[in-house]
Amino acid sequence: MEGGKPNLALVYQAVQALYNDPDPAGKERASNQLLLQLRQDVESCYFAAQTMKMKIQMSFYELPPETHNALRDSLLTHIQNLKDLSPIIVTQLALAIADLALQMASWKGCVHTLLEKYNSDVSSMPFLIEILTVLPEEVHSRSLRIGANRRTEIIEDLAYYSGTVVTLLTSCVEKTGHDEKMLIKVFRCLGSWFNLGVLDSNFMAGNQLLMVLFQVLQRDETSTNLHEAASDCVCSALYATENVDTNMALALQLFQGVLTLETAYHMATAREDLDKVLNYCRIFTELCETFLETMVRSPGQGMGDLRTLELLLICAGNPQYEVVEISFNFWYRLGEHLYKINDPALHSVFRPYIQRLLHCLARHCQLDPDHEGIPEDTDDFGEFRVRVSDLVKDVIFLVGSMECFSQLYSTLKDGNPPWEVTEAVLFIMASISKSVDPENNPTLSEVLQQVVLLPEGVHMAVRYTSIELVGEMSEVVDRNPRFLDPVLSYLMKGLREKPLASAAAKAIHNICSVCRDHMAQHFQGLLDIARALDSFALSTEAAVGLLKGTALVLARLPLEKISECLSDLCAVQVMALKKLLAEQSTNGKSADPTVWLDRLAVIFRHTNPIVENGQTHPCQKVIQEIWPVLSETLNAHQADNRIVERCCRCLRFAVRCVGKGSASLLQPLVTQMVSVYQVFPHSCFLYLGSILVDEYGMEEGCRQGLLDMLQALCMPTFQLLEQPNGLRNHPDTVDDLFRLATRFVQRSPVTLLSSSIVVHIIQCAIAATSWTTGTQLQRHERVHQTVPIAATFTQLQLQSLVDQRSEVTTKLRRQTRIHVDDEDGATLNVELKESSENPARRVHPASSGGGAGPGRWEGSAQGGRRRTGAGRSRWTLVTGGRAWSTLFKAILFETLSFFLPVP
């Protein structure tokens, strides 16, 4: 391979060795071969450098310690040899070196080593700075297998050498002058160290680099790339200085420096240089974020100077909406702080600034004069308007919602603004209308009256937003029923027009939700709309919303009318399902029934009439009539998880709707659930089972049947979870299984504990809390699994405290024998033994032996269980940290020790 490009066979051989050679030395030789021999091929070098980085990130622990120094020296040589080939290769190698330094505990003072090796070589300065840039960035990388103690050690080490690094960067700037590439590297590196939070603020306050930063930002001729690097660095410095009281010297320098950038902002605006304008706005926003508490604590004094707010309002006046959007998070936080303080005098200080902000936001929300059709809500500008609406709702209390609403209305009433101004004002009014007290408010009534009288000839966007405003003013309609007929007439006009149909449907839904009693007289009209739902150009969400509103009104009808009206409301959906089933039986093609199932579900969910004890539920008959269609649909699509979930959801709300009135469906429903689950173990059946237990678990005649259901569902579930990685691959099943178990403990604990299945459930719970590693336990994706498991154990204890302690304890004693060992908060041994003997409970430290590593499950792949004797199962749970161990032990010890007191 010397002297030219290698042939394909050699490259392939090297790549194979890199990935598959079990010998770490072989992997290193392959890496070196690619790095050294493919020097003239940028793509291959990049591949090799990136692969080396990934290997160090993911597999460094595989290398023997005696090879670490050689690997470090090799990497440093490679980056020096390849420094002129490509910046992206240098970056990958720099990351590899940084990750090596962080994981290689024997490499003490890595920064000192790097500075000593390359500080005197000017040509090495670019890649040295690159390494020093990525090193702090990688400290908190989740890809690296380093613990909290090692990270703390690294941060302390970097803090020790931080002054030396800043001195190096200052020296680079002095030597290279205004070399743009070097300045960009220096600013990126400095920002990285600011982000890590290890720079001494007093040292930095007097450092020349701060002056250079602001000089670069003040110069009109600064390039875009350099301007962005300098802006990022200033933002990082401001973020690192958020605790102003402990970083006073640096905070003052940054505060004064940023205030000098106003002129530069205006110059960038005049030149229409949007990139620089956005950078300045980022800096101004970060300044306000940093000094927010100071500003609220002492407004107008010292570093609470409200000129910072003026800078943000100047940005809000920029014609580009992207500029003001940068500052939204600050305005949210300011509103939150002021709301918590609730000081009228303080509110009055900030009120003028919020008023100006709202004025700017209303202007930014204006559509283009040549815009046609309705406002888009899915493009960037539509998303911006949604964020504006949220922000206005959060800060309107500072201005006064009624005052603001009246001012906005006066701009429409007293003038003749263009349509785009009218639409924007209506949009802001819709955002705050719910904050205005609707009681005896003539302005609201006048606005509502004028809006429903808008002629059809106005711009479509104005009509669209006015419909949204009417929907938001549903409480005004509820307190002024005289407006109900004209409002419904206005909304029906919109419902018949394709562009306005979904907005009108949403508004009708809002009216139905708030004005349920008044809308009862209009139920027939709602029923007619529901029957012709598909003739309107509605989104799926809008159609479901209309049915929800109709169901809410239906629940307010007299009980004797509800059954017939519910049957009429469901008829369209039921007929559609029957048609699909008939077509499937004829031509064998399966059509998607989810639309109709979702519509039935929303009807059942929101039809909740008040039924007195002893009265027959008016919905009971209808649900019994619909059940055969739902059952047939479930059978026809039993292999399709998505459709089965929709069927179960529909049945769940049907059961919740009538409660114990669905008793006649219990046996056929459970039979079908168990039958399908044996073949297709969809987790939604477990969820539906928990609903049945919740409704019928306290009924004496239903308990045994529900227990049989639980046992029948558990067997396929355990088989599924005992597969390799079964717990990992089926988190929803874990969730729903323990939700079902928890409901049984809540409703009928004696029934559950009298059965043999409880032992297997507890065994599964222990396995489910132990399979994951310590790192994975920290991730949100695993948290939802622990909640139902914890609830199951906790409910075992709480339920027995009520009235069944003696009986529950006796039953559990007959079923289990428990032995718990604890080793310094790290290891938990649990032994469950089926026995007729009275168990003894003992808790003591285990011996210090064993070879389990943190977060590792000892046992076979079949559920993490290993046999230790006849009729006995034993677990060793090695957790990833004390917090997790403590959590699990708190649940297990408190619960099981309560049930199994020492004899």
In short:
The protein is mainly alpha-helical and 903 residues long. The protein contains 45 helices and six strands.
**Structural class estimated from helices and strands:** mainly alpha
Q: Could you list the spans in which at least 5 consecutive residues all have pLDDT below 50?
A: 772-790, 797-803, 815-903
C-alpha end-to-end distance? 78 Å
The biggest beta sheet reads: 6 strands, mixed
Counted by DSSP, the helix tally is 45
Mean pLDDT: 83
Rough outline: globular
In which range does the helix fraction lie?
55-70%
Find the count of extended strands (DSSP E, 2+ residues). Answer: 6
User: Which percent band covers the strand fraction?
Assistant: under 5%
Rg on CA atoms, Å? 34 Å
List keywords for this structure.
903 residues; 6 strands; mainly alpha; disordered C terminus; globular; six-stranded mixed β-sheet
SSE blueprint and pairings:
Layout: H1 8-20, H2 24-37, H3 42-59, H4 68-81, H5 87-103, H6 110-118, H7 125-138, H8 148-176, H9 180-196, H10 201-205, H11 208-218, H12 224-240, H13 248-259, H14 262-270, H15 274-290, H16 292-297, H17 307-316, H18 321-325, H19 328-341, H20 344-364, H21 380-399, H22 401-413, H23 419-432, H24 442-451, H25 460-472, H26 474-479, H27 484-495, H28 501-514, H29 516-519, H30 523-531, H31 540-554, H32 559-587, H33 594-606, H34 620-636, H35 641-658, H36 663-679, H37 684-696, H38 703-721, H39 726-729, H40 731-747, H41 749-753, H42 757-768, H43 774-777, H44 780-815, E1 818-823, E2 827-833, E3 843-845, E4 857-858, E5 866-869, E6 872-878, H45 882-899
Parallel strand pairs: 1-3
Antiparallel strand pairs: 1-2, 2-6, 4-6, 5-6
